Please model this.
Amino acid sequence: MKGMSLIVKTMTNIVIGFIFIYGVYIILHGHLTPGGGFAGGVIIAGAFVLRLLAFGGTTKSEKKSSTAGSVFESIGALLFILIAILGVVFVGAFFANFLPKGIPFHLVSAGIIPICNIAIAIKVGAGLFSIFLALAAMKYVIED
Amino acid sequence: MIIFGSCIVLFLIGLYAIVTKRNLIKIAIGFALIEYAVNLLFALIGFRSGALAPIITKLDTTHAFVDPIPQALVLTAIVIALGTTALMLTVILRIYNHYKTFDIAEIKKLKG
Amino acid sequence: MSFIPLFFVLPLLSAFLIPILGKIFKPLVWIVSTVVSFILFIIALYGLSATRVIPMIVYKMGNWPPPLGIVMAFDSYSALMVLVISILVFAGCLFSLRYMSHYTGQWKFYSLLMLMTAGMMGICITGDLFNMFVFLEIAAISSYALVAFGVGPEELEASFKYMVMGEIGGLTFLLSIALIYAKTSTLNLADISNSLQAIQGTTFFWMILGMLLFAFSIKAALVPFHSWLPDAHPAAPAPISSLLSGVFIKVLGIYTASRLIFNVFGLSRDTAPLFFNILIGLGFLSIIFAGLTALNQKDYKRLLGFSSVSQIGYIMLGFGIGNFNGVAGALFFILAHGVAKGLLFLTSGAVVNATGTRELTKIPGLGESMPTTAWSFRIGALSLIGLPPLVGFFAKFLIVLGAVEAGYLWIAIAAVVLSGLTLAYLLKIENNVFMKQGKTNAKQAPYTMRLAMVLLVVLALALGIGFLPIVEWVISPAAHALLRGLEYSQLVFSSMTFSF
Model:
């Protein structure tokens, strides 16, 4: 798909880092403030979509992005199930909170919840980017 | 009570859009309206008058809080609706590629 | 650790491993799916034997006790449904090795199939209302994508129609969950049944029950909400059609409806006779209307789709009769119809694979060239019509016995006479496909496809001949689990945990 004008490209270069960091902030503070994995994942997907829209992409690069998106989506889901199974290994109940809970209102506290937020954010970000690619960017690409 | 009634009215407007409109995109918008209405109803059920938002910021919790369970359920329902809407729009795009029209009266390849 | 979470963890794990494995080594995806479904079958047998010792096994997720956390409540009815699901998924996976070999992107198919299995298993074992909704939507969205798998115009239109109707049902379910939560402030099934005792019989109670029945009738394809099924089942690939007709509409529609009606809302024949008469009426409407429409169909799989709608009517009839034999007959019918209809759709897949068309008038006579397929079809059809000693006869017999015991002699006679409709439309397929004279050069179905069909034939025969132990060990405890009604909640709260 075609890119956009020079003004948009320059502004994207400046702004995209801030969007990404804002998304990471929302993910990591998921157990303290509203947001969490899903909202942060959407923001990170928005950063990737902005880069694709502003700079355009060739068919080959879009295909590579689609493959990478599918792999990252599986990694995020597998990480989430791995955390749940580790709850069985350490405590004996599925999905139990097995890490130390720590001091309330600190960044590193509340057991497995921050790690679950990260896994969900990877999956949601990759999934939304793949949806964007399938709907808007790739037309009639047949794989395998 | 008026608020719950207006949620039901929004639900009925979405249902009207799904049942009577002929354009495929308008049917998808009808689904979005129904999902908004149901999620809004769900989140409003947890409201308690004179209570704060359910975020604990200090260790002494003497204030009343709004019910947090419907908010978690609405989050899950929004994600499910996202998946459904994405799939529906993809199918609509593929139908457009085949038939070159969004009109539901032209797509009657299946009969009976 | 207990075996209960394995039912949905194993399919989920394999569903997310398959995209990665599919890029490394292609045949691995089929191996993973088949092995996982076989393991699920073994665990389902173990679960069945466990529920004969302990009537209700409760598993607390994350060690949170019942009203606070999500629980999995596994009793004999869940064990029966999980067994049916695993048998049909295993047969479907065996069949799809050769059938899907001319589609591209096979890893997507197996990944979606495993997701659908995880959703169906999750519905059957959960004890929490919103958890049931989430698993229902997982299974439903996977099935919408699977129906549209071969992206031709016919499949896309069928999938869109299915999606619209299915989502209306799902959203009505969500709306009724919101109203139930507003009244009872809890989502645990056992806790809801305790709280609903206070408002038993009020207008609100019947309104919620009506909305739930509407939502599940769309998912179970009861007349008049059945119009998505005859479009969706022919358009899907054959192993998916056999899964859809064989278990999917039963798990999403019949299991959820019966679990909520009997165990959560606590209705029974004695306390709410009008409601059960409405169920009998819905059942007869489905049997007659869909049976008559099936007679004029010219498409193989579309005829079988209308037949599925008709047979779901029998299950509703069994539940509507409401006494022990009626409910046990309905549950046995779930097992019998799953095996028989799954087998019939697999034979249709073999025919399509060999001749490339589904229209009855255009298929050449295949009785001599494909003997395994022809005999599988004949045994599946005879089981559906209800010929002893196949399993379908005993299922219908139990329903008729229940009707006679309850005093409804005319229902019993009508149920037997309407089997003639089933005979008529299945005979139409037999005449047009297998008994026609004429030489063709169609080859026999490939080995794994024949293996899957023979597996289901053997099951139909074995379950029929050995019906007494099956009824005593599998069906009877499940019927007791349903008819226990409100004791479900007492069992959930007082049950012990169970470790491997």
Q: What stands out?
A: The helical segments of chain B are 2-20, 24-45, 69-99. The mean pLDDT of chain B is 86. The radius of gyration of chain B is 20 Å.
